[in-house]
Amino acid sequence: MKRGSGLSLHVTVVIAAIAFIYFSTVFVFIDQWFGLWSSPGMLNAVFFTVVAVMCISNYALAIYTDPGRVPSSFVPDVEDPDNIVHEIKRKGGDLRYCQKCSVHKPPRAHHCRICNRCVLRMDHHCVWMNNCVGHANYKIFFIFVMYAVVACIYSLVLLAGSITIDSPKDDQQSEGSYRVVYIISGLILVPLSLALGFFLGWHFYLIFQNKTTIEYQEGVRAMCVAEKGGYVYSHPYDLGAYENLISVLGPNVLCWPFPSIRHIGSGLRFRTALDNKYGGQSRSLCIVSESDSGESNSQDDEVDNPGVKTALSMLKFYKNQEDCVTNH
Question: Which UniProt keywords apply (predicted)?
Answer without folding.
Answer: Acyltransferase, Membrane, Transferase, Transmembrane, Transmembrane helix
